[in-house]
Amino acid sequence: MNSIREIVTSEWFINKSRFIGFLAPVQTMTEVIAFVNQLREEHNDASHVCFACILSSFEVAEKAIDDGEPAKTAGLPMLEILKKRQLTDIVAVVVRYFGGIKLGAGGLIRAYAKTVRICVDKANLTNPSIYDECRLEIEIESSGAIGSYLRSVADLTHESYAEKAVYLFLCPKDKTNHISEEIKKRMASDQQVEIIRSIVRYL
After folding, report:
1. Half-sphere exposure of residue 5: CA atoms within 13 angstroms, side-chain side
2. Which element (helix H / strand E) includes 145?
3. What is the model's pTM?
4. In this structure, what are the phi and psi dihedrals at residue 71, rounded to the nearest 5 degrees?
């Protein structure tokens, strides 16, 4: 599997209908919906804003939305292109401005698939990397320095402060041991970093 590094767009016309395609890297359904809603606002006079997505890193999901087009003529063919190209953590959106000439079910399937295919062909693909999701629990008095260190070397995804400070963070698997040893050194203790799980990220 693979993903993309940045947003890609394409545009073409068939029988006076305008098709505008977008591919974006995403990791959660919240990001998917936010991106689709943004395009709906920007193209509020479009006839249809259809999308398909595949997620696997933080959430596992697939979705295909026809947005008023005949069933399985828009979202599904878009999703099939993403699957054939073995892409994940990605959303494809196609905005259609109807030109007055009906394309028929077969024509719609080909048009939506082609729009996504053009975007994929233009995309700069990522390389999958293995990350460790880690948990660290320390005394509050050490939280200032250790929290700052974690923010500088890892992706800090959660922090809470009560009787103890708790951090959740992501780091490349090949850096986990170094970060763990550095924390021990800075705290002058045998403080352990707990590895919750390893995941593949597409960055």
Report:
1. 6
2. helix 143-153
3. 0.78
4. -55, 135
pLDDT tens per residue across span 64-107: 999 999 999 999 999 999 999 999 999 999 999 999 999 999 99
3-class DSSP assignment, residue 53:
strand
Identify the domain containing residue 112 by its residue range: 8-122
CA distances for 5 relative to 24, 80, 119, 124, angstroms: 8, 20, 13, 6
At residue 188 the predicted structure's pLDDT band, cuts being 50, 70 and 90, is confident
| Three-state SS at 11 | strand
Q: How many domains does the chain have?
A: 2
Question: Residue 3 falls within a domain, yes or no?
Answer: no
Alpha-carbon distance of 120 to 46, in angstroms, equals: 23
CATH number at residue 155: 3.30.70.240
